Amino acid sequence: MFGFLVSFALADTLGLQRDLYYGIYAASVAVFFVAWRGVVYGLADGLLLSVFPILVVFAAFAGTKLRERRAGKIAIGLAALVASLAMTASYHIGYSDFRSEKVGRALSGDVIWSTPTLLTLNPIGAPIAHAGLHVTAVLNSYETDLFFPPHE
After folding, report:
1. pLDDT digit string (tens) for 94-117?
2. Contacts by 49-52 with C-beta closer than 8 Å and gap 24+?
3. Does residue 2 register a pLDDT over 90?
4. Residue 78 structural domain
5. Considering its fold, how many domains does the chain have in total?
């Protein structure tokens, strides 16, 4: 999947000059090699913690008058965000180190990584945003007291 995305975006879509493509491709592979845990874990978390609850809430109101009005869409979006926050909280408190004030960090992050999917209802937004946060965490994990669970 990673290989397809890189070649499609850089060669097919952007049509980069060959040497520029090789340089960016090599750098992308190096970053992916270092941060693959953040990418894979982030994509999975984004789907489970954001996309699923958000799309379920919006699907529950499909075809209703509430969904036809702007205020109704905002209300549904807030309900979807609450569902995502509930999913995020319940998931994270399954890990002992998140049964503290640290769960607040995950909840704050949820608002950030859920925003693309909330605004567009496109399921790819939250996993990409979540993967970005996880990659950042992987690269900076030694500079913080919060590490990816489960711990060894």
Report:
1. 988 889 998 998 999 999 999 999
2. 49/84, 49/87, 49/88, 49/91, 49/110, 49/126, 49/130, 50/84, 50/87, 50/88, 50/110, 50/113, 50/114, 50/117, 50/126, 50/127, 50/130, 51/117, 51/123, 51/126, 51/127, 52/87
3. no
4. 35-141
5. 1
